[in-house]
Structure formats: structure tokens, C-alpha cells
Design a protein that fits this description.
Blueprint (H helix, E strand, L loop, with lengths): L13 E4 L2 E4 L10 H5 L2 E3 L2 E4 L2 E2 L2 H14 L8 H14 L5 E9 L13 E9 L11 E10 L16 H12 L4 E6 L4 E4 L3 E6 L2 E5 L8 H12 L4 E4 L11 E6 L3 E10 L2 E4 L4 H15 L17
Parallel strand pairs: 8-9, 8-15, 12-13
Antiparallel strand pairs: 1-2, 1-7, 3-6, 4-5, 4-6, 6-7, 9-10, 11-12, 11-14, 14-15, 15-16
Length: 310
């Protein structure tokens, strides 16, 4: 693969595009594509460890669900996408990689209505390491003014491209001010997530995490909940408020890219919250890493969780 410092459109390799492999340079779409103008686009993020995609079936099932929520269908079934991904990793000689499936509406219509557009699908993969560059050392967050929308104003359960516009704005502001990422509240003023990862607070030995009713119930989030429960750690899924930061001993983020990332500080409403402890974070991170890299991974569990609620 080419130099990771190069812009993505100038790299070498192959991309799976509408059912076949294309050279990286030839994987293009027209400027009149509906997905570009109206964000009629969904995507996924999958990690490969040792050349093996982690939880690939769950990711592609969510890919299909996301498209359904945006009123279109992925023209390739889950097994086809799984096989395409494995072929792509082999073709590009990738081991530790990030995989980006994306589906979008084409250029047949250029208006709000888009029911006659062709649905295009591509899968891209590239070398990938630590998302934040300080996963277990700890990162800093600042509170963003942008909030996650209510379920009746956006398809919150879809991994839709348009929902990430405010995440980009929030992250840009945080980075300009010297932070690693931003903490986002939801439309009610409750803690929701960071710009691209779910959040957990450790309070007196228990894990507290927001109810995912207006943001994605992450695949990594569900994995951490199960791993914690297997270790006898109680998980409390509830409305989490900014005041809860005062009681938390540890905070961490979870996501495919973020994996398990410790949060060291959060700046919110003029207050600085420091989280000096990390024992539970480190333990769950180690368990997650071991499972993700295991050659004999457990079969996928049902999506429903049995968690305590406060």
C-alpha cells in the first residue's frame, strides 16, 4: 500500500466497487451523484486484526439496516459483502486495517425525490493503527455546543453520512482549542457520546452509560457491556448527566476506530474534570483486545442487552 501521508484519492491499491475490484485511482463517482448533494449515503467502519475482520457479520447487518432507514436497499447481501471484504484484504496485503463500506444514491435524479436512483456500493480498506494516538494514556474532551438530534428529527439509528456533519464541526472546534475530541449532549441536555464513539463512566465500581435512544448503539459498546457483565461488573444504562462527571472515577470511549480509549480530562461549562483512575478501563481494554485478536472468537450475541437501569 502507498504512503499513508498521501491524500486518499492519490493512494495505490484496489477498491471493491459495485461487485468487482478496481484500481484505487479508477474508483470514482460523478459530481452529480445524489449522495454528494443530499447525503443519501450510509457507511460502516470495520477493523481487521491479523487480516481477520472483527464482527464483520454484525457490521454488514447494520449496513443493511442503515440503508433501510434511508429508504433504499443495498443490492448485495451480507455474505457477498463479507467475501468481498476478505478478498479486498488479501488483494491489498492488509493485516491491521480499517475497512469502510459505503453505499450511496447515484446520478439519475437531482432533486429531493430520489426513488429512481441506482444504489452504488464500495468497500475500501487501508492500514490503520491507534485512532487517537494515546488510547490508554488518555485523551481530553471539551463540551460541544452541538447536540445529537431527537429520533423524530433524524434517522438516529442509521449510520448515515449526514448525521456526522455536526460531529465534524464539533471535532474541529475541539482540536482548534487543543483538545482531542468533543463531548456531545443530546437534544435533552443529557450526555450522549463523543463525535464518533460511545461513552462509559465508572462510578463506584459500576459502569454507567447513556441509553442509545438518539445515537448509535455501537457494536463495540455492546461488546464491552457483555465483557463487563462476564467479569461481574454491573452495567447501568440510564440518562447520564453532566453532574455525573463529578462522581466518576474513570471515563472511557468505545468504538470500532477508538476501540477502548481512556478519557483523562473533560472540560464542560467552565469546569475541568480529571479522571486519574483507570483500572477498569485497562481491564476491559485488555479483554477487548484479546477477543478482537483471538483466532477463536465467540459467536455473535443477540443485540438486546440485559442491563440494570437507574
Amino acid at each position: 500500500m502507498s504512503d499513508p501521508a498521501l491524500p486518499f484519492d492519490r493512494r495505490d491499491g484496489t477498491i471493491w466497487y459495485n461487485g468487482s475490484l478496481r484500481s484505487w485511482a479508477d474508483a470514482k463517482l460523478h459530481v452529480m451523484s445524489h449522495g454528494l448533494h443530499y447525503a443519501s449515503c450510509v457507511f460502516e467502519g470495520i477493523r481487521a486484526y491479523g487480516g481477520s475482520p472483527y464482527k464483520i457479520r454484525e457490521h454488514y447487518e447494520r449496513f443493511h439496516e442503515s440503508a433501510t432507514l434511508l429508504d433504499f436497499s443495498i443490492p448485495y447481501d451480507v455474505p457477498t459483502l463479507e467475501q468481498a471484504t476478505r478478498t479486498l484484504l488479501t488483494e491489498n496485503s492488509l493485516s491491521e486495517a480499517y475497512i469502510r463500506p459505503v453505499a450511496w444514491r447515484g446520478s439519475e435524479q437531482m432533486a429531493i425525490a430520489a426513488d429512481k436512483t441506482t444504489i452504488h456500493v464500495a468497500i475500501i480498506a487501508w492500514n490503520f493503527g491507534d485512532y487517537f494516538g494515546a488510547r490508554l494514556k488518555g485523551i481530553s474532551l471539551m463540551l460541544s455546543a452541538w447536540r445529537r438530534p431527537s429520533p423524530d428529527s433524524a434517522p438516529c439509528n442509521s449510520k448515515a453520512a449526514g448525521l456526522y456533519t455536526i460531529c465534524t464541526l464539533a471535532k474541529h472546534e475541539a482540536q482548534r482549542k487543543g483538545f482531542d475530541d468533543a463531548l456531545m449532549l443530546d437534544y435533552r441536555g443529557q450526555i450522549a457520546e463523543s463525535t464518533g464513539a460511545n461513552i462509559f463512566l465508572v462510578i463506584d465500581g459500576k459502569l454507567h452509560t447513556p441509553k442509545p435512544d438518539c445515537f448509535l448503539d455501537g457494536i463495540t459498546r455492546r461488546t464491552i457491556v457483555r465483557l463487563a457483565q462476564e467479569q461481574g461488573i454491573e452495567v447501568v444504562e440510564r440518562a447520564v448527566l453532566l453532574e455525573d462527571l463529578e462522581r466518576a472515577q474513570e471515563v472511557f470511549l468505545t468504538g470500532t476506530a477508538a476501540e477502548v480509549t481512556r478519557v483523562r480530562t473533560i472540560e464542560a461549562n467552565g469546569s475541568s474534570h480529571e479522571f486519574a483512575e483507570d483500572a477498569i478501563t485497562q481491564k476491559l481494554a485488555a479483554l477487548y483486545d484479546a477477543q478482537a485478536r483471538s483466532k477463536t472468537r465467540p459467536k455473535a450475541r443477540p443485540k438486546t442487552m440485559s442491563t440494570a437501569r437507574a
